[in-house]
Amino acid sequence: MGAMSEPQVLILQHVPWERPGRILQNLEDLGLGYQILSIVDRKKPDLPDFKDVAGLVIMGGPMGALDWDEHPGLKVESQLARAAVSVGKPTLGVCLGHQIIGTALGAKLQRGEAPEIGFAPIKRVDRHDFFSMWDKQISVLHWHNDVIGVPEGAQVLARTHGTKVQAFRVGSALGMQFHLEVTASLLEEWLDEPSMVKDLKSVGLSKSQLRDQFAEFNPTLQPLAEQVFSGFAARCNTYAKALAASHAE
């Protein structure tokens, strides 16, 4: 097992272009250390000591959450997510990460009716600190095919017509099917990646339309992303301080 000199947030990334984006900004604002690893294809990855992990982030990616045979590291990620929630470590999943956490906690995974790509509104199902600043609906960036059911004991926070669980919380975990982490520069990386844009025509979108949508909705999304990710970072910071205090005893 690798060693962490101090409590840090562990970020699991599956492909180079699905990076943490805005999530990092909020961790850095609090001076929180983090480690970004890609373990998706490793059956026995070298991971930091679990007790030193102050928070867990699982990013998006093109694979399926249960493609364990092709990508054995996904099974490890599922086990990590379940373990993190069981001991109350702050845990955040985006898109594929949302599905990994959800299925680890008993949700069913299935193919969506059609790819959900582009900016479209999600409807708030239940109010929670994570999403307290928006009322009934807000347009967010979608980019996925698979969907999950409701994890065991979860509170569903948001939905769309085609995706009944757009966001959920259960214990210390928050899952979001949509992408609040994407900045303008990160969007450009996505638009340059052939595997990301291959389905645009099927949903009637062009790259320029996506850029226009981002410019239109980002002023509203920026404060929501700040609320969600700063809240997550604060939870990680509290957990890190508790870990550091226990290590000092």
UniProtKB/TrEMBL annotation:
What organism does the UniProt record list as the source?
Answer: Bifidobacterium moraviense
Recorded hits in Pfam families, A to Z, give: GATase (PF00117)
Q: Which PROSITE patterns match?
A: GATASE_TYPE_1
Domain called Glutamine amidotransferase: residue spans: 23-185
Q: Which GO terms describe its cellular component?
A: cytosol
Under InterPro entries, the record lists: ChyE-like (IPR044992), Class_I_gatase-like (IPR029062), GATASE (IPR017926)
The identity of this protein, by name, is GMP synthase
